[in-house]
Amino acid sequence: MSPMFQDTLSDKLRIFPDLKEKLQKFVNVKIENLISNRYGKHDSPFTGPLVGFWHAHLRDDAIIIYNLKNRSLHLVAIVSHAEIEGKRAKKMKNKLDQFK
Question: What's the pTM value of the predicted model, to 2 decimals?
Answer without folding.
Answer: 0.91
